Amino acid sequence: MNRWQVSRSAQGGLNVVLWVTADLVVERSTTTEVSATFISMLARFDRTADLDLYQDGAELFSQALNEAALTRLEAALAALPTNAPGVRIGEGRKLKPFLEVAGPIGGIAATALGADARPVRAILFDKTPERNWALGWHQDRTIVVRERVGADGFGPWTLKSGLIQVEPPFDILERMVTLRVHLDQVDANNAPLRIVPGSHRLGRLREAEVQRVVTTSGERLCLAERGDVWIYATPIVHASLAADPPRRRRVLQVDYSADAAPYPLAWHGI
Fold it and tell me: What DSSP letter does each residue of 145-183 carry, written as one string?
C-alpha cells in the first residue's frame, strides 16, 4: 500500500515522503506551509478506512447514520446558537436517543467501551465561510464536571460556556473515546481532522514533545462523507486546517467514558 509520511523539517517546513513499499522512497518534497494542493495530494494516497482504533487510535464507521437519522439529528441540534464556531452542549435531552448505547452514535462508543459507555461532553463545531479556523497539534486534556471540588491530581480549572472544565489525571482520559459525527462531507480541502497514528499510547505529552511526535510519526487525514462517524482515542495528537475554499463543515463531537465518575468528582453529563 502506498504510504505518505508528513513531518516538520528543522527549517520549519514540511517533509513529505511517499513509499510504494516499506523501503522504497519514490518521492520526497519540502514545503514551508500546508497548502490545499498539498492536502489534496496527501489525500489521494491516504487510505483512512484501514485505520484501527486500538492500533492507530482512530477508526472510521462509514455511513453510520442514514439520511433519515441525519435529518432527525439536525432537528435536535437546531435550537443551538449559530453565531459561535464551537457550541458546548450542556443539556442534550433531544440528543439522548442518538447518544445512548442503544442509539446509532452511542452504539459505536459501546464497541470500544462496552455497555457502560456514557456521553460526558458534546460540542457542535460549525465551520462556515465567516467562521473558518485552524487548530494546531495538541491533545485533548480536559473533562466537564458537575462542580468544582478540591482533589489531588485535578487541575487547572476553567469555565467555558458556563460549564466547569478541569484537567484530570491522564489515566481517566486514556480510558475515554471521542466520536465525530459528520453532518457534511469532509474532503481533503474541507478541514479534515489530522491525526498522528499511535500517539494515543504515548501518555501526556509536553508541548515540545507533541511536535516531535508529529515529526517522527507523520500524520493521516480523517476524510468523511455525510453520515460517517470517526471514533478516536481521546488523548490522540490531532489538529485541523481551515477549509480552503471556505465552506460549511458541521461536526458533532462527543466524548464517552465507561467510568461511573471521575472520582471524587462527578460527570456533568449531557
Answer: ESS----TT---EEEETTEEEE---HHHHHT-EEEEEES
**pLDDT at residue number 82:** 73
Please state the separation of Cα 261 from the chain's center in Å: 22
CA distance 33 to 28: 15
Query: pLDDT of 142-152, one tens digit each?
Result: 999 999 998 99
Could you give the domains of the chain? 48-257 (2.60.120.620)
List Cβ neighbours of 209 (8 Å cut-off, separation of 6 or more): none
Among left, alpha and beta (phi > 0; psi -120 to 50; other), residue 232 is: beta
Q: pTM of the entire structure?
A: 0.83
Asked if 140 and 235 touch (Cβ cutoff 8 Å), the reply is: yes
Fill in the amino acid letter for 49: A
- Within 10 angstroms of residue 112's Cβ, the number of other Cβ atoms is 18
Q: Report yes or no: 174 and 237 within 8 Å, Cβ to Cβ.
A: no
Residue 17: strand pairing partners:
5, 28
Cis peptide before 156 (omega within 30 of 0): yes
Please state the φ and ψ torsions of residue 214, each to the nearest 5 degrees: -60, -45
- Nearest CA among 183, 157, 156, 190 for reference residue 251: 183
